[in-house]
Amino acid sequence: MRALRHIFNRSEGNPVKGKTPQRRRAKRARSPNWYLRKRLGLVLLLSAVGLTGLVAGAWQLKQSGVVQGLAAAAYMDLMRWSERQIVRAGLTVQHVFVTGRGETSKGQVLRAVGVRSGQSILAFDPDQARQRLLNLGWVKTARVERRLPDTIVVRISERKALALWQHKGRHVLIDHGGKVITRKNLARFAHLPVVVGKDAPLAAAALIEMLSRKPTLFAQVQAAVRIGARRWDVRLKNGIKVHLPEDDPFSAWHRLAELVAEHRIFERDVAAIDLRLPDRLVLRLTPEAAAKKNKAGKDT
Fold first, then answer.
1. CA 162, CA 211: separation in Å to the nearest integer?
2. Cβ distance 271 to 240 under 8 Å?
3. CA distance 132 to 124
4. How far is residue 83 from each of residues 80, 87, 115, 129, measured CA to CA in Å?
5. If one looks up domain 95-158 in CATH, what number appears?
6. Cα distance between the two ends of the chain
7. What are the structural domain ranges in the chain?
8. Which of 12, 56, 164, 273 is 20 to 30 A off residue 173, Cα-Cα?
9. Options 3.40.50.1950, 3.40.50.11690, 1.20.1410.10, 3.30.499.10; which CATH number does 161-299 get?
C-alpha cells in the first residue's frame, strides 16, 4: 500500500497533501563588518546632505553681502588694534626732511606727502606719496623713504623753466621737455622768450639752444612762432621779424649775426628779414620807409 506522505506547514501546523516539500534556504548570519559598513554609508550620506546645506547657506550669505561685511569689519578692527600697538611701540612719524625744494613750497610738499605728526609710520605709503609729489608742476623727480622709527625723508628735483608758451590767448610756463610747469605768477618769468604754436613746446628746447649760440643776437629775441610744424619765425624786441629756413636754421642765424655786427642792419627801417634762401638775404622795409623810398623814386 502506497504510503501517504504528510507535509506540515510550519506556520499553521496543518498538513498539506499532494505537494512536494521544498527545502528553504538557511538564513545567513550577518557579519559585524556588514553592519559597520551600513552605518558608515548612512553617516556619509547624512554628512553629504549637511555639507551641501552649509555650502548653500554660505553662498546665500555671500550673495547677501553679510560675509563681506563681517570680514571688512573684522579687518578694520584688526587694523585699528595693530595701529594702536605700533603707536605704543613708538613707531610714529615725528620728523619729515625735504631736500631739493626751490620753487615748490614746503606746504605743497607736506600736503602731497600726506603725513601727519604722530601717525603710525608703518601705515605711511612712500609710493603713493611719491606719485602725489610728481603731480606738482615744478617736481620732475621724487624719492620718498621711510626711516624707522620716526622719520620720513623726501628728495625732489625740480624742472628748469625754458619759455612761456602762448596758447589760446594764454601763457603757461614750460620746461625743456615741453611740460607745463605752472600757469600762475608768470610775471617774474617775463624775461624768457615766448613760443607760439600747437607743437611749439616740443620743439622749443632745440630752437632756444640753437639761438643761444649767438648770445648777443639771442638777447634781442622776444618770441618765436612755429610755422606748419616745420620751421620758425623769430620776432625780435625791436619789432623785426626773422624768417628762418626749415633746413639748417643755425647757418642762417649765424649769417644774420654777422650782418648785424658788420652792417648794423637793425639800425635801418627794416620790418622783416627773410633768411629762407641760402644764397641771399631779403629785407622788407617798414611801411613808412617803403613809402619814403617810393616817393623818392617818383621825385627823381
1. 13
2. yes
3. 13
4. 5, 6, 15, 20
5. 3.10.20.310
6. 183
7. 95-158, 161-299
8. 273
9. 3.40.50.11690
What's the grid cell of residue 259? 650782418
Q: 71: Cβ–Cβ under 8 A, 6 or more apart, which residues?
A: none
Angle at alpha carbon of residue 95, lines to 92 and 98, rounded to 5°: 135
Alpha carbons 291 and 297: distance in angstroms, whole number: 10
pLDDT, averaged across the chain: 81
Residue type, 273: I
Retrieve residue 42's grid coordinates.
548612512
How long a stretch of residues is the chain?
300
Q: Measured between alpha carbons, how far is 110 from 96 in angstroms, rounded to an integer?
A: 8
Q: What's the grid cell of residue 80?
A: 585699528
Of 97, 150, 144, 98, give the one whose Cα is nearest residue 120. Answer: 150
pTM of the model: 0.67
Residues 6+ apart with CB under 8 A from 143: 130, 154, 155, 156
pLDDT digits (tens, 9 = 90+) for 26-65: 555 555 555 555 555 554 555 565 556 656 666 665 666 6
Sorted by sequence, the CB contacts under 8 Å of residue 124 that are 6+ apart come out as 93, 115, 146, 152
Q: Which residues of 174-211 are buried (b: 16+ CB within 10 A; e: fewer)?
A: bbbebeebbeeebeeeeebbbbbbeebbebbbebbebb
Residue 270 in contact with residue 286, Cβ under 8 Å?
yes
pLDDT in tens, 73-117: 665 555 556 555 556 556 889 999 999 999 999 999 999 999 988
